[in-house]
Amino acid sequence: MTNRLILELPTPMTPSFTQLPKNIRILRMPDRQSFAQAIAQQVATDLRADIVRRDAATLIVSGGTTPSGFFQVLHRMDLPWEKIHISLADDRWVPTTHPDSSEKLVRELLLHPTSPFVGLVNDAPTPQAGEAETNARLQSLPRPFTCTLLGMGEDGHFASLFPHNSALKKAFDPAYPLLCTAVNDAPKPPPERFTLTYTQLIATGRVIIHLLGKSKMIALENDVLRDGPIEDMPVRALLRQTDVPVDIFYAD
CB under 8 Å to 120, separation ≥6 — which residues? Predict the structure, then answer.
């Protein structure tokens, strides 16, 4: 029992989409263009509302190919970008000019020149050595976050929180003092990564999970939403909590 996650969660949900908790919505889009536009519209609405409320907003995004269309749509929107702080849910520990860098993708497709941005990768030789510096950077972000955008792997991972990974213990411990944690043994290359903790990712006004492709929806329905430990499919933690709205946007 000592290797179990510290996070305690309610009884697992039924896999039926008709019986999801009230804070979970699944939004099926007819095509990928509508998918990108719908996510951008929801995010823009949340950002504007937060800026009215506290004169600042914070958007946390993930890298990869799925959010690329959304990034481009949101980039073209008329928003007070100087008040929108942007950072990443996770990133690969590679130079920010590397093709695998999520920061590189965000800078190319989403950021405006006036956007305050906090990257996760620094000049330390390893992510573990860079934890303190990245944590200090993240302290500048207005919190709670306005919106957190996450992908989901067919194995049930999100951000860089992979099933049965050694980083899960820190990432799911609400008493862990840092906002982020190093990942040294990710099952997907590269193995060295950086991720915000679950506690920080869920401290947000809304979580958006973006899914493209039938295989992702099959994994969600047949595996993620069924009974089973968080360690087997970490994304279950997001879908079993009932405090934060979670919108799952899906298109084939």
Answer: 87, 88, 90, 91, 103, 134, 137, 180, 194
